[in-house]
Amino acid sequence: MKFLNGLLGFPEEIMGKKLFIVDLDGTVYIDNRLIYKAKEFLEFVEKNGAKVVFLTNNSSKSKAQYLQKLTSMGLKLSEDNIFSSNEATAFYLNSEFSGKRIMYMGTFEAAKEMKEWGINIVLPFDRNRDEAVDAAVLAYDTGMTYDKLSIFCLSLRRGIPYISTHPDYNCPSAHGPLPDNGSFIELIKASTGRIPDKVVGKPNGEMISSISKKYGVNEEEMMIIGDRLYTDIKMGIDNKVKTILVLSGETKECDLGAGDILPDYVVESIGKLYELMIDR
Q: What residue spans of the chain are helical by DSSP H?
């Protein structure tokens, strides 16, 4: 683990990467505030012939919503620059549960996107209480209600396969950490005794293999940049992809060394990384 501060020289291996896999919440922005010089980082990387893919575990928004949010912040990109845990979950469902009926707890836009990807979803509403479903998917539902949670838990009690889009416990915000999917998993476990049979998002290695196939790069050509040790950094470690931890989101410097998940590099923020790149 090396702290990037400009005092010991900038690692040239970072400049040789072809694909930067960059987290969003806590790394590129917090709420609706772009992190300092994140835009300049994106422009610099692409000007130098590499590609940036924003990889987010946050399944509460569709790719179209993410694109709208990022472009409204001044970033110039397309949906090809965005890959989400919701998309990865759709790939998994189309592979393992093709044509099956899926109880899906998520936001309206995320559910709509799932339908567009060909997933036969059933929403956890009272009218669907007795509907037969083949599997259940827990996404980051920021519109969760007690009724939706109750119907979803009743479905799980029938023993069907249980899938989660991602395991993050908290989502960064300007007001502080907010409960994310990992917290919902614990809530559901307390009621049903069940944990997901499959968690699709980071740190699952299938995210890396999907990106590798989609963008035509191998693990040695990638660099992961994110703010969470147990998702972003662990995914890199488990899949032999180099990692940079930013301290602008969930993980703070005092958290380093508390466990065995350590990044290759640590930097204050993506803006600081950009400054070090141009000053190298």
A: 12-15, 38-47, 63-72, 85-96, 108-116, 146-156, 181-192, 205-215, 234-238, 270-279
